[in-house]
Amino acid sequence: MPGGVGVVRAQVVVVGGGPVGLLVACELAGYGVRTVVVEEREGISARPKATTLHARAVQCLVRRGYLAGVAGGSSAPVATRCAFHFAGMPGLAVCAPALEPPPVLKCEQEQLERHFEARARAAGVVVLRGLRVTGVRQGPDGVQVTASGRRGPVTCTARYAVGADGARSTVRRQTAFACRTYPATVSALAGDVRLERPGALRPGWHRTATGWIVVKDIPGTPGGVRLRTLDCTGAHGGRHLPPTLEELRAEVGRITGRDVPMGQARWLSRFSDFSRIALSYRAGRILLAGDAAHVHFPVGGQGLSAGVLDALNLGWKLALAVRGAAAPGLLDTYDLERRPAAQRVIDNTRAQLALMRPDTGLDPLRTLFGELLARGGDNGVLASMVSAQDTVLPPRAADPSPWEGRFLSNTELTTSQGRTDVIRLLAAGRPLLLLSAAADRARWQAQARPWSGLLRVVRTGTEAALPGGAVLVRPDGYVGWAAGAGPLTAALGAYFREGGSWEHGTPATPGTDTGTGADTGRGTGAGPGAMAGAGARSTGTGAGVGDAAPGGVR
Fold first, then answer.
1. b/e code 10-30 from CB counts within 10 Å (16+ = b)
2. What angle do CA 334, 447, 459 make, to 5 degrees?
3. CA 123/CA 111 separation, integer angstroms
């Protein structure tokens, strides 16, 4: 019970009940890992936070089945492009490949958090709210997290702990993770207010000689706007002091050069360009994710997406480690793959801020970028960077294919049971070995046999757009191996232990999947992303059949 007294035993304890922590918990529980989430807040905050999910995060969430039921989210593939901005300049065209969902999803963090918590609880996760973590200790066999609430102390013991407790992470501080920091150089304010003269501020991004102001109308609230200001003259001397409405009004007046009367502030906050990244995301049995691992200036809306991608990269690897099915070193690849991606976000947000500084000497550079953005088709590098679609993971194989580490775009596939696609097949949460009719199927299936309890083998038609006709797809959608590289056995051995299984208890019987959700020789079961809510049944082709049992798959 929240705030209760006692000991909670689990296999993984996740500290932090925001969207990142809850998503990690969803993934773990879906793979049968007993998971507890410890969160200081009594309830989900209605305070506006992140609102943007970029293309790669959207694509990965759809593959795991997590956007069903989210406003604006859909598992239906649609080829599209969305207009975005770079350094406050419009014209950035963010595109997604054909058969993928829209490349930008606007969704309030509050809604996403509620959705993930419902999914986590339905999967059997114990969510403890109203508990402030006071201690984190680890030993050779496990981790102990102590917390206090209104009714006394609680101790959580587990094999692993994940710190997803935000920028001021207690887990990070208590475990003494070393970090690289970038001091604050600007001061910014944000808040929802009511303008006493509706229409006094136009919606959009506005730069003046003294700073920036960003204005967004609040639907259904006459005169209501969401404001953000940026002062590039230096960091605020009291960055931990709560801002006031009068301070925001004075800052808006300074930037716009005129008085803008406002009142009824619903919320106010202060932030800066202070950035930090942990030099490792793992310290023994303790791992970091989301803002606990990396923070940056919030331009471009990349923070929530980066945290989501952390969770989806970590979840299946940690689940395999807990269940003893991970190859040696697999859990360390979480840091190797996600830390460079976070550094890239920090670097591009610092570059955007450099372009936003009101220095007339930067005008030629801003003009150049403005022209590139106006051309639309010439900004693919920037769009891919902001949307994380340029991410290529470091290869694990000694003789990698050019495809290894790249994200496999959705493609339609023909099986003996009918049509399906990559999105549907990955919803079950298992790695895929896709074999087209043009591939030497007998050879690859023979090599994969020792991993048959973990691997899902899908035979496709000759029209499948698969690298070399045979490709190993990780649960997060990235290519782990493709024909033309080294042996498949080496690739599988780099990820999984021989004889491992997703099922509880005994290893599964070897068999081949036909791509319709029927695992020949295995019991059927929905993976972590296949649930659509409490008691919901997956209906997508290839997603697995059956309701999710509490705490895992069945």
1. bbbbbbbbbbbbbbbbbbbbb
2. 90
3. 19
Model pTM score: 0.89
Selected residue with higher pLDDT from 133 and 506: 133
> Distances in Å between the alpha carbon of 224 and those of 193, 196, 261, 265?
6, 9, 12, 9
Helix (H, G, I), strand (E, B) or coil at 100: coil
One-letter identity of residue 169: S
Residue at 40: amino acid letter: E
Backbone angles phi, psi at 412, to 5 degrees: -75, 145
Residue 394 burial by CB count (10 A; 0-12/13-18/19+): exposed, middle or buried?
A: exposed
Strands 126-129, 179-182: pairing is: unpaired
65 — pLDDT class (breaks 50, 70, 90):
very high
Question: What are the angstrom distances between the C-alpha of 342 and each of 62, 92, 291, 433?
Answer: 21, 21, 10, 29
* CA gap 125, 362 in Å, rounded: 51
Question: What pLDDT score was predicted for residue 551?
Answer: 27
Task: Tell me the C-alpha distance between 244 and 258, whole Å.
Answer: 19
Residue 34, pLDDT score: 97
Q: Which residues on neighbouring strands pair with residue 434, listed in sequence order?
A: 458, 471
- Name the band, by pLDDT with cuts 50, 70 and 90, for residue 71: low
**Cβ distance 314 to 289 under 8 Å?**
yes
> Taking the CB of residue 110, how many other CB atoms lie within 10 A of it?
17
- Encode pLDDT of 254-289 as tens digits: 999 999 999 889 999 999 999 999 999 999 999 999
Helix axes 303-322, 19-30, angle to 10 degrees: 30
> Residue type for 284, please?
G
Using alpha carbons, list the distances in angstroms from residue 133 to 153, 215, 340.
10, 37, 29
Q: What is the mean pLDDT of the chain?
A: 86
- The pLDDT tens digits of the residues spanning 3-62 come to 456 899 999 999 999 999 999 999 999 999 999 999 999 988 777 788 899 999 999 999
Beta strands in 72-167 (DSSP E): 81-86, 89-95, 104-106, 126-129, 132-138, 143-149, 152-158, 160-163
User: Does residue 77 contact residue 100 with C-beta atoms inside 8 Å?
Assistant: yes
DSSP character string of 466-526 = -GGGEEEE-TTSBEEEETTSS-HHHHHHHHB-TT--SSSSSPPPP--B-SSS-BTTS----
Mean pLDDT (whole number) for 221-238: 93
Quick one: pLDDT band at residue 548, thresholds 50, 70, 90? very low
Two tokens, residue 389: 């679609």
Range with lowest mean pLDDT among 148-162, 371-385, 401-415, 519-533: 519-533
pLDDT of amino acid 532: 31
Q: Are strands 52-54 and 104-106 parallel, antiparallel or unpaired?
A: antiparallel
pLDDT at 446 over 80: yes
CA distance 464 to 436: 6
The CA–CA distances, whole Å, from 186 to 21, 34, 91, 244, 248 equal 29, 43, 25, 18, 15
